[in-house]
Amino acid sequence: MIFDDTSIPGVVRIHGARHVDRRGSFERLFCAESFAAAGLEQTFLQTSLSRSRRVGTLRGMHLQAAPREEVKIVRCLVGRIYDVVADLRPWSPTYLRWEAHVLGQGDGALYVPRGVAHGFQTLTAGAEVLYEISEPFAPELSIGVRYDDPSLSIAWPLPPVNVSDRDLAFPLLGLRAEARAS
After folding, report:
1. How far apart are CA 80 and CA 103, in angstroms?
2. Rounded to 10 degrees, what is the CA torsion of 9, 156, 152, 150?
3. 169 — phi, psi (to 5°)?
4. For range 5-31, the mean pLDDT
5. pLDDT at 175
6. CA distance readout (Å), 97 to 51, 54, 69, 86, 139
7. Amino acid 108: pLDDT
8. Residue 44 and residue 32: Cα distance in Å, rounded?
9. The CATH fold of domain 44-181
């Protein structure tokens, strides 16, 4: 397995070594030993799959709060997505920085560490995204930030469609900071 660091500490692009022969191909998607050697989480307790019908569908920006912060491995199995991570760790040198990766079939995966929000926008209809998640879903700890938060200024490639009511209700980071100060 190949692990490539990105500009945000802890966010890693993962590529498997694909073996191709006359039958097709074979690729290891996860190996605990390889992840351990790279200093990455090796235990994933939940696997989820999202399917998005329309181009431009936007899901995010999500993460889970302490004490059950989660690590995610995100892989697009069908179609293509514009996958975005935003660093929400106040102690991080890249706090409030975001980056995007286009993921599609055969493009590997993205490792999203604790404290980094994740979301994506579909570039094709019928996109299917697989998530390996280190913690079980805890609704009371499920948090997020608005996809259009001016503190992040994420440049989405398409006009967002099909944004969930939950995602639209996330507070802006500026409002959170004001609430903490009072």
Report:
1. 6
2. 180
3. -85, -10
4. 93
5. 45
6. 27, 28, 19, 6, 26
7. 94
8. 10
9. Jelly Rolls (2.60.120)
pLDDT of residue 25: 87
- Sign of torsion over alpha carbons 115, 67, 179, 119: positive
Better pLDDT: 53 or 17: 53
Instruction: Give the residue numbers annotated as catalytic, written as ranges.
Output: 62, 131
Which runs of E-coded beta strand occur in the chain?
A: 2-5, 12-15, 19-21, 24-26, 46-52, 58-64, 72-78, 80-87, 98-104, 109-112, 116-122, 127-133, 142-144
Decide: 89 and 6 in contact? Cβ < 8 Å. no
b/e 137-152 (16+ beta carbons within 10 angstroms → b): eeeeeeebbbbbbeeb
Spell out a b/e string for 103-113, using b for 16 or more CB atoms within 10 Å of the CB, else e. bbeebbbbbbb
Q: Maximum Cα–Cα distance for the chain, whole Å?
A: 65
For 46, the token pair is: 């939940």
C-alpha 108/C-alpha 18 separation (Å) is 10
Distances (CA, A) of 166 to 59, 143, 171: 10, 10, 10
Q: Please tell me the predicted confidence (pLDDT) of residue 177.
A: 43
Checking if the pLDDT of 182 tops 70, the result is: no
pLDDT tens sequence across 71-96: 999 999 999 999 999 999 999 999 99
Give the bridge partners for 120, in sequence order. Answer: 59, 83
The one-character DSSP state at 171 is P
